[in-house]
Amino acid sequence: MLTELRREAYEANLALPRLGLINLTFGNASAIDRENGIFAIKPSGVPYENLTPDAMVLVDLEGKVAEGSLKPSSDTPTHRRLFLAFEGIGGVVHTHSSHATAFAQAGRAIPNLGTTHADYFNGEVPVTRRMTEPEIAGAYEWETGNVIVETFAKRSPEEVPGVLVYRHAPFSWGNTAAKAVENSVAIECVAQMALMTLQLSPDIAPIEPELLRRHFFRKHGADAYYGQSGGNC
Prior knowledge:
Radius of gyration: 17 Å
Order of helices and strands: HEEEEHEHHHHEEHH
CATH superfamily of the domain at 3-98 and 124-185: Class II aldolase/adducin N-terminal domain
CATH topology of the domain at 3-98 and 124-185: L-fuculose-1-phosphate Aldolase
Shape: globular
Strand content: 5-15%
Largest sheet: 7 strands, antiparallel
Number of helices: 8
Number of strands: 7
Strand order of the largest sheet: 4-3-2-1-5-7-6
Structural class: alpha+beta
Helix content: 25-40%
CATH architecture of the domain at 3-98 and 124-185: 3-Layer(aba) Sandwich
C-alpha cells in the first residue's frame, strides 16, 4: 500500500543525519498522500541506519495506524495536527538541530537579519508561546501541534514554512517531504547566521521591509523569477 509514499518519507528521514540536522534519533520526517488521507512517518526510536522504506508507518488523519508493524514516532500527533491545519503542505520535518534549538530553548524567534533568511522566510521564524501545565500533562504531542497552529493564526504557513517550539526545537514543512527537509536546513542555517550576527552587532535591526519583500517574492509567488522555469533554485 502506498509504496511511493513510504519511499518519500524514508528518503526524507535519511536526509536528516546526512545533512547534519540529527543527533542520535532526535527527529523525524513524514509525507502525506492527501487523496488517501494517509501519511508515512518514521517509526519511534529506530536508528536511522536501520531504516528501510518498509519500516515507515502509515497513519490516517484520525491517528490510527493504517499499515506497519512498528510504533510510529511519538511526534506523530504533532505531524497529524499540522497536516489537518495546513492543507497545502505535503511533508513535515522535526529536528533538534543545534543552533535552531538554541533559539527555541531561549524562547526567542530567529530574527530576519538579511537576504539569506529572506530567501526562505517572509519574516522571522517565530517561537510558540510557553505551553501550560495541563497541555504538557495531557495530550502533549497533539497540544504541541495546537500551539504551532495558534502561532500561525495571523501568519501564512506558506510564507513562513517553519517554527520553533518554546523550550523544544524546530518544525518545518513544505509542499513535499523533500521541501520540508530543505526548509529545515534553511532554519538551521539562518539560526547559526543570526547568532553570529547578534554576537557581532547585538543591536542590529531586522532587515529592511523592502529588501525582505524583494528577496522573498523573487523566489516565491506568482511573479517569482529566480531560477529556471518550473523550479525555485
